[in-house]
Write a structure and sequence with these properties.
Elements lengths: L1 H12 L1 H6 L2 E6 L2 E7 L13 H17 L5 E10 L8 E11 L3 E9 L5 E11 L2
Antiparallel strand pairs: 1-2, 2-4, 3-6, 4-5, 5-6
Length: about 130
């Protein structure tokens, strides 16, 4: 049930995700998966995928996984490490998995991979869960 509701919300309300071409494929409590194809407008001056585009993909799956529990969850902190460059045409997949959940916080590990399964970036997000 949540996935259908969130997908409708996502398509209507998340303007940045829509602008970047991010497709939410799966979302359930503590887990989410999304993809994004690297288009020319997502490249930086060096001709590789802009870190902000990769971060946005990671942030969107983090938001989906942390909000799937029901109460509104907002990011307190996100750290990301970029491990490999990608170029135009690459299809990136981001997966967020919950590592720890308390009444007020949730800790998530986010991995971004290319279509060959190579790790492009890894992030950790801490969410605050409103009562």
């Amino acid at each position: 049930m949540f996935m259908e509701e969130y997908a409708r919300f996502f398509q209507k309300k998340d303007a940045l995700a829509n602008h970047l071409g991010i497709q939410l494929l799966e979302a359930k409590p503590g887990y989410a998966r999304a993809t994004m194809k690297v288009r020319p407008e997502l490249l930086n001056g060096a001709g590789v995928t802009h870190g902000g585009a990769i971060f946005s993909l990671a942030d969107i799956v983090f938001a989906a996984a942390s909000n799937a529990h029901g109460p509104l969850a907002l990011a307190l902190n996100v750290n990301i490490s970029f491990l490999q460059t990608t170029t135009e045409g690459t299809i990136l997949t981001a997966i967020a998995r919950e590592d720890n959940l308390t009444k007020k916080t949730g800790l998530y590990r986010i991995e971004v991979m290319d279509e060959d399964g190579k790790l492009v970036a890894v992030a950790e997000g801490l969410a605050y869960r409103r009562s």
